[in-house]
Amino acid sequence: MTESVAERTEPLVANPRGRAPSLTLGVLALIGTVWGIMQPLVAPALPDIATQVGVAPSSATWLLTAFLLSAAIATPIIGRLGDLYGRTQLLLVTVALVIAGSVLDASAGSLGLLVAGRVLQGFGAGVFPLVFGIARDTFSAERMPHAIGLISVTLGIGSGIGVVLSGVIVDNLDYHWIFWLQTVVLALCLLATQALVPPSRNRTTGTVNWVGAALMGGGLAGILLAVSKASTWGWGSLATLGCALGGLVLLTLWTVSERRTRHPLVDMSTLRIPAVWTTNLTAVLLGAGMFSAFVLIPPFAQAPTSTGFGFGASVTTSGLLLLPMALTMFAVGSFAGHIQHRIGAKASLIAGSAVSMSAYALLLVAHDSKLPICVATGVLGVGVALGFSAMANIIVHAVPGHQTGMATGFNTVARTVGSAVGSALAATLLANSASSSGPTVSGFNNAFLVAVIALALSTLTAIAIPTHTKTAAETPSVS
Hints:
It is a multi-pass membrane protein. The protein is mainly alpha-helical. The chain has 2 domains: 390 residues, MFS general substrate transporter like domains (Growth Hormone, Chain: A, Up-down Bundle), CATH 1.20.1250.20; 56 residues. The protein is 76% helix and 0% strand. Helix 1 packs parallel to helix 8 and helix 5 packs antiparallel against helix 6. The N terminus and C terminus are likely disordered.
């Protein structure tokens, strides 16, 4: 691959003295985990929030939608800005913006202010292309797969912790504590980043194609808005179809704009690399499979025992059923780099998709007690850890160093889109099967089956990823 016109990468520089790479990795992993926690943390509190601010429960779901839209739009832009102006510097700015959003939400008394705070919090998705780039600049070629693998699974680990933690907060504290606790932890992340993460000196030259950014943002917003609201508006409604069509039109115009500018926000030639686009497609499918669990398991457990399948569990107990997923993701993620060193990133991704598929197959045939559900979520954690860590390494090794932020940022967007599609489909299947007493077991079974199909397709697309070939990305970095 060749660099874009008027772009270059400054030489790699060593990690400054006194800043041990292991400490840097710890901070980067902590930041990824905290952002993962933030994604599902507010969901169980939506009924309480709606009551306290005086809005309908359907209106409160904008706290989820705004977060999702902001994350998808901001991620590639922040990744590009990090490549231009320094990844560590942009990481500090991004964390500061997320803190501002958390403080706003913690003190807000209206839905409008809460949504504004969630938009700022969504910017936190931009930390992933930044931390991947920092890891690439900091670690040697031998240690880089381990570092990137560990950071990759923090999203899933954090999401699992977030579901459990949210139940405890909702059952015992006011919803404002969700945001105050986030603020305290994020402030610690900001101080740790300043103290332990080396300043970035590996940058490209050029500018940001802001016209392209606006077109891309509008296009993603249309698509994600259609997907996230489809269960409420109806998949065939004018609002859903209009948002989806408008999003596709804007994304088409964005593609044209990116091809004509000297400084594209996303290099289309990079996205056309076979290893990149097949990995991104796999990310959509694997993301859909993973996040379906967060939509399906808690309501399944909370369903009354009178339904014949539910356990009548509390919010806290239902969240604990997802704890095995967080634990196995952490355990496997810690060794993901070593696993990929032995079998390769592609094989790890194939295995991750297949193992995740087996978890939903188990849920489809055995969910009459809490034990098989705990086993299934634990197995799902193993699969997602193998898959997520492998995707980031495949992308990093397939692109030149100066495009790490852009490429990994777009992969994060692919996972975000997948999570939105998976969550929306699961919610729609539950809603369509609902009776007067709530979702029926057939709705859950249909959703489990759709997840099995999505992860089977994910396995096939992972198999289609070209075998790894040496690229400019493999030039040794300085530790």
